[in-house]
Specification:
The protein has about 575 residues and is of the alpha/beta class. The chain contains 24 helices and 13 strands. The protein is elongated, with a radius of gyration of 28 Å.
């Protein structure tokens, strides 16, 4: 059966709402031409078939493995969606079982993507694991010739760790041996995709329109969506349409976009949502970053509405950067010492924030030429009057609304309130362990636009600060800051008590001048309940801030003064 005939039968089957038959015909068409657009259609129809079937049973390991094997034994192509995405997280041993079983199935782009995603999630396996588990999957991806999966694998192969190199070399030797044995020469380069005839392409377009809905029909495939988003990076409505399109195809990036769009729309973000975001990014973030994955430190990235919009560039990444990548249009924020290497690139026309620069580099930016930056941050080192002058005015940054200073000493905090820039910015962000109260009292006497202070005494790694932040706000200036919101910012690299200790939060509250606050909200945090010592520490800090403060906190305890009032 040729491609056009198979696609015609798939279209007919979809017309009578027989998705299982349509899926079989689409697989026939894909095996004949390896077209990524047909593979995308297979994903869409497969997701619909999977939703209509019972999920594979969960429960104890033995129960769920028996259920998975029972489904796999039927070798029904309509079950592949359930088999590659069971409702439980497979262990490494379970992955071995799944991979060995599915490797024997007929060619299927869903299986190719399953193997590619497992390879992408690989974290420096030992040599034995690389040999008997990952290497066969690498070979099978080369055999399946799905261009989407091959693109993922090519990025995995660029990783520098020795075990990945050994795995790739072993897979390459295997493929070379196949060629010597006369079984065909395979590689990890682009798949040999058969071009579609005009009639075949029209059938694909009709199926895409029928399965994707009206908005998706206007934008054929992922490449068109991405091109449109790169052309209008601030169009959040377009990203929402893209998210719907992805979710119809059971693509997890659609979930990430919707979760992060909620934040952009001002909706409350719960610890559960933040945890889910981190899980998705840990699993798929490097793939979604595309070519920018090489540029930004994997631990220092900023994501917005499902797209990488910045982070901390590395020296090696900047040297290897593909400057023609249209994804640069999405970058809004860069940070760290090497940010100065790319801040002047014309590709970063949308850049709005530069943080954690050496003070010398920050002074250069503040001096000119003019830029549309909204945020500028630097870390304090030894500095001269020549550097202090441009930072005190930031004349080259007329749109500046926030400045951030890390490790500011007493002299800097005494100098800052008297600078011209403080009369036009709206927010100051300080990373500091030393006393802040004199600075807060001086800022309270300032007029201008300043309405917000962001303070932390958390632990710093790179450009990330894990721990407690205290955000102070006021309605008018001059005047005290009357509202405070405490937020806990987790970091998966921190396991120590210093980050999670309530001492950081209580220390910040003790810095706030007594009698200022009228409201204190402690947001729910992804950390455990308070110990007796922590509760006493926080209780004392809350009592310090004043008698008439409305306190909202997630631990459901009352201070001594509140207990007295009840009596």
């Amino acid at each position: 059966m040729d491609v056009g005939e198979a696609l015609g039968k798939a279209e007919t089957a979809l017309g009578r709402d027989d998705r299982v038959a349509a899926l079989g015909h689409l697989l026939e068409a894909w095996r004949a031409c390896r077209q990524p657009r047909i593979a995308d259609l297979i994903d869409v129809v497969s997701a619909a078939v999977t939703r209509a079937r019972e999920p594979i049973a969960s429960g104890r390991l033995r129960t769920r493995l028996a259920a998975w094997k029972a489904v796999a034994a039927r070798r029904d192509p309509a079950d592949v969606g359930r088999l590659v995405k069971p409702p439980w997280r497979p262990s490494i041993d379970t992955q071995v079982l799944m991979a060995r079983t599915l490797a024997e199935w007929p060619d299927d782009p869903r299986i190719a993507m399953f193997f590619a995603e497992l390879l992408e999630q690989m974290r420096e396996p030992d040599t034995g694991t690389a040999t008997w588990h990952y290497r066969p999957m690498l070979v099978r991806v080369a055999e399946l010739r799905d261009e989407r999966a091959l693109a993922i694998v090519r990025e995995v192969m660029k990783r520098p760790d020795a075990r990945t190199v050994a795995m790739v070399q072993g897979a390459t030797w295997t493929l070379e041996g196949r060629a010597r044995d006369g079984r065909g020469e395979l590689s990890f380069e682009d798949a040999d995709v058969m071009p579609m005839s005009p009639e075949t392409e029209r059938i694909v377009e009709r199926i895409e329109a029928g399965r994707g809905g009206a908005p998706a029909a206007k934008l054929r495939g992922e490449a068109d969506f991405l091109a449109a988003i790169y052309a209008e990076p601030d169009a959040m409505g377009l990203r929402e349409v893209y998210a719907d399109w992805l979710q119809e195809r059971d693509d997890p990036r659609g979930e990430l976009i919707m979760l992060q769009l909620a934040r952009e729309q001002g909706r409350a973000v719960t610890p559960a949502v933040e945890t889910r975001e981190r899980e998705l990014l840990a699993k798929y973030g490097r793939r979604w970053a595309g070519k920018l994955d090489r540029v930004f430190d994997v631990h220092e990235r900023v994501w917005q509405a499902g797209f990488l919009v910045g982070g901390q560039p590395t020296y090696e990444g900047v040297r290897a950067a593909a400057r023609d990548d249209p994804a640069w249009a999405m970058v809004r924020e860069i940070s760290g010492e090497d940010a100065d290497e790319i801040v002047d690139w014309p590709q970063l026309a949308g850049l709005r924030a530069v943080h954690d620069l050496p003070v010398l580099h920050a002074a250069r930016i503040a001096r000119g030429p003019r830029r549309p930056l909204v945020e500028l941050g630097w870390r304090m080192e030894q500095w001269t009057r020549r550097q202090r002058a441009p930072l005190g005015t930031c004349k080259a940054l007329p749109k500046l609304r926030l400045i951030g200073i890390r490790d500011a000493d007493g002299d800097t905090l005494e100098w800052l309130p008297g600078t011209p820039v403080m009369k036009r910015i709206e927010c100051v962000r300080l990373y500091r362990r030393n006393p802040l109260r004199p600075f807060l009292e001086a800022v309270a006497r300032l007029g201008g636009r300043l309405r917000r202070l962001e303070l932390t005494r958390g632990d710093v790694v790179g450009t990330s600060t894990a721990g407690w932040w205290l955000v102070l706000e006021r309605d008018e200036a001059p005047g005290p800051f009357t509202r405070a919101v405490a937020r806990f910012r987790p970091d998966v690299r921190f396991r120590g008590s210093s980050v999670r200790s309530i001492e950081n939060l209580s220390g910040l509250l003790f810095e706030v001048p007594k009698g200022w606050l009228r409201e204190l909200v402690v947001e729910p945090a992804a950390r455990g309940p308070l110990s007796r010592e922590e509760r006493a520490e926080l209780e004392g800090a809350i009592e310090w801030v004043g008698d008439d403060v409305r306190v909202v906190q997630p631990w459901d305890f009352t201070t001594g003064r509140q207990r007295q009032a009840k009596r």
